[in-house]
Amino acid sequence: MMKAGIIRCQQTEDICPGDIDFKFAQTGQGAFAETGPVEIIGFVSCGGCPGKKVLQRAKLLVRKGVDMIVLASCMSRGNPLGFPCPHFQQIRNMLGEKIPQSIKILDWTH
Ligand code: SF4
Fold first, then answer.
1. Closest CA to 59 of 71, 69, 48
2. pLDDT (tens digit, 0 to 9) for every residue of the chain, 110 residues total?
3. Ligand 1 within 6 A of CB of 110
4. Which residue among 1, 32, 62, 109 is least packed, with the fewest CB closer than 10 Å?
């Protein structure tokens, strides 16, 4: 079973505890259909706008042994408000450039 670290939008913490992320990760649904059920090693926020802390938090998750970094759908799809992160592509590009290529990146959860 692969190990995942999930990064979510800090702006949605008050309205979403990430329960669907956990459920989908544990049961291999949504974005996890391509990996099968995964073990969640860490679940952290982006650190707030504009998301510059994502890199150091992703590196922390890598040090903790994750095989993949998962950017939750609150970031990429704007769940549950329909308000995607305006910095998502920049954050995604930064991760693609700065974390080891061996670490898989998923852009959504559900
Ligand atoms: S940077 Fe994006 S993901 Fe992070 S709090 Fe702001 S809107 Fe949410």
1. 69
2. 999 999 999 999 999 999 999 999 999 999 999 999 999 999 999 999 999 999 999 999 999 999 999 999 999 999 999 999 999 999 999 999 999 999 999 999 99
3. no
4. 1
CA of residue 60 to ligand 1 center, whole Å: 18
Q: Where are the domains of the chain?
A: 3-106
Look up residue 60 and give its two tokens: 């922390």
Q: What is the 3-state secondary structure (H, E, C) of the chain?
A: CCEEEEEECHHHCCCCCCHHHHHHHHHCCHHHHHCCCCEEEEEEECCCCCCCCHHHHHHHHHHCCCCEEEECHHHHCCCCCCCCCCCHHHHHHHHHHHCCCCCEEECCCC
Instruction: Give the pair of three-digit tokens for residue 43.
Output: 């679940």
